[in-house]
Design brief:
This protein is α/β, with parallel strands linked by helices. The protein is built from 6 helices and 10 strands; from the N terminus they run E-E-E-H-E-H-H-E-H-E-E-E-E-H-E-H. Strands 4-1-5-9-6-10 form a 6-stranded mixed sheet, sandwiched between helices. A two-stranded antiparallel ribbon has the order 2-3. Strands 7-8 form a two-stranded antiparallel sheet. Strand 7 (146-148) and strand 8 form a beta hairpin. It starts with a strand and ends in a 6-residue tail after the last helix.
């Protein structure tokens, strides 16, 4: 049986939005949105919060989630990579006698999730794709973008492509950070959540694609929520 560990990475440090993981968003601590989804989604066999923050741990315990360990300081810096954080969580479970074939990452900064996106990701993994990521269509196509040098001079990022008509452009999207699901063996080998063969799940709802990294992001998410039918 293929087993999935769902990891919610939530370190204490956040320079642009201090304490954002436990700050109240739409009536509950921001991290609680991700935790409640992870606990309710049937495709996850175990849910783990990776944190060095006692306040995050307190919120987790209040939601019925006990923490077996705290993230070590060297994995809670600005320079620490998410891959290392996830592999550390997998190692901690291995020490405790639990192994997983897949791992999902739910960033607390993307609080609104739809189960159908994750069901589609699970279906694609079952078809044999090594990794699935959530993506959002880009507003400005990369064929129409330019490099700028220090003097402001422009060079096309894709020479010879910038004159294509909009209806001729190939589909383009950016990883939105809202969904990562990958085979553990592939993550260990490539140390990437977007390895060769990765497949996309397209998100077309602005609210579920929001990534709260600044105060402006926070305000935008609140504004989008007011006018959305997300909970209908």
């Amino acid at each position: 049986m293929t087993r999935t560990l769902a990891v919610i990475p939530a370190r204490a440090g956040s320079k642009r939005v201090p304490g954002k993981n436990t700050r109240t968003f739409a009536g509950k601590p921001l991290i609680q949105w991700s935790l409640e989804f992870a606990r309710a989604y049937p495709g996850f066999d175990e849910v783990s919060i990776s944190t060095d923050c006692q306040e995050v741990a307190r919120v987790a315990r209040a939601c019925g989630e006990s923490l077996s360990w705290m993230r070590p300081p060297e994995l809670a810096t600005d320079e620490a990579g998410t891959v290392d954080v996830i592999l550390h969580a997998l190692d901690e479970y291995q020490v405790r006698g639990q192994s997983f074939e897949r791992v999902a990452v739910l960033q607390p900064t993307t609080p609104f999730r739809r189960a159908d996106r994750w069901r589609e990701a699970q279906r694609l993994l079952d078809l044999g794709f090594p990794a699935i990521v959530g993506v959002t269509a880009v507003e400005q196509h990369p064929y129409w973008t330019y490099w700028l040098d220090a003097n402001g001079c422009m060079q096309p990022c894709f020479p010879g492509q910038s004159k294509q008509r909009s209806q001729e452009l190939p589909a383009a999207a950016a990883i939105n950070g809202a969904l990562y699901w990958i085979d553990v063996s592939v993550l260990m080998e490539t140390r990437s959540f977007a390895p060769p063969g990765v497949h996309a799940v397209l998100f077309d709802d602005a609210l579920e694609s929001i990534d709260i990294d600044t105060e402006q992001d926070w305000l935008r998410a609140e504004q989008l929520l007011l006018g959305s039918g997300f909970f209908q």
